[in-house]
Amino acid sequence: MTARRSLRPALLVVLPVTALMALCVLSIGLGAVDIPPDQVVRALFGHPSSDLVDNIVWTVRVPRTVLGLTAGAALGLSGALMQALTRNPLADPGILGVSAGASFGIVLAIALFGIGSLYGTIWFAFAGALGTSVLVFLLGRTGRSGATPVKLALAGIAVTFLLFSLTNAIVLTDPDALDRYRFWSAGTLADQDAAVVRSILPFLAVGAVLALATAPALNSLALGDDVAASLGRRLGLVRLQGVVAVMLLTGASVAVIGPVVFLGLVVPHVARVLAQYAGIGPDHRWLLPLSAVLAPCLLLTADILGRVVARPTEVQAGVLVAFIGGPFFIALVRRRKLAEV
């Protein structure tokens, strides 16, 4: 029995990583032209069976898969970080309006300023994500009880719908912005090349380092502000570091793949269940990296299913992630424990 328990933490690492590697192979192999797994592996190691396979793998499928890995990890990490910072199980870059703020910033960049480059729109996405985070927190903390989980969720939903309305008002008066926005807004990994992936990697890397560095402080914050302060944690600095990390991770991801809602909400809860099963408990030094592995698993699964269920066309990955995450969110809200918060 003791030996089994000692193996659980190892399995917590090995199984998700193995699943992610298998999904990467499937993501590279499945599409309009299916490529068997053995040919995928041969092409990745420089021995493709044909020039067509080599071109499909390295020009189309690998950039798409790497984008799913990086953007999915960023959104999962930011979701887990937001839930820890706010001590709110409903926190999510989509639910709390951060994705909507980044989307609104991008639409402003395209429609009002004529900015079409990725680097140009990323800065507007960052500004929108940060502004929305501050606004939701200020709205959620009004009243005697302060920033409760339900109030923050309601404030985030209200701000999301407001920004959604403003975004629609802008794109409906600008045909060029509408053409670019309507496909991007569904959340998709398609039609991106390696240059786009490389352009967001510095932002995601800095955001990931900042997020992971907050893990020990997040364990202290889970005990309450007073306890965390007595342990020597500088609460303002920790929260600032977390907000900057969420802004970088969410802003860069949304700027490229669009607003994928519910990814950051679902994955941290799954990570907690797995960590509890492994006997680790709510240790954010495990939860944050595990969320960063599980989130791309979900995003790549949605992307793969989107290519298969509607051939020869595709269903955007963001649509399928929302299809999975919507019922999960409803079940989470209906939990008696959460309803009493």
How would you portray this structure in words?
The model is unreliable at 336-341 (pLDDT under 50). The chain has one domain (2-339): Orthogonal Bundle (ABC transporter involved in vitamin B12 uptake, BtuC). The protein is an all-alpha fold and 341 residues long. Helix content is 76%, strand content 0%. It is built from 15 helices and no strands.
Q: Which descriptors apply to this entry?
A:
ABC transporter involved in vitamin B12 uptake, BtuC; ABC_BtuC-like; cell membrane; 76% helix; 341 residues; globular; ABC_transptr_permease_BtuC; mainly alpha; disordered C terminus; 15 helices; transport; transmembrane transporter activity
Briefly, what CATH class?
Mainly Alpha
**What portion of residues belong to β-strands?**
under 5%
Provide the number of structural domains: 1
Q: Describe the biggest sheet?
A: none
Can you tell me the overall shape?
Answer: globular
Structural class: mainly alpha
Under CATH, the homologous superfamily reads: ABC transporter involved in vitamin B12 uptake, BtuC
Family: Belongs to the binding-protein-dependent transport system permease family. FecCD subfamily.
Pfam family, one: FecCD
Keywords: Cell membrane, Membrane, Transmembrane, Transmembrane helix, Transport
Subcellular location: Cell membrane
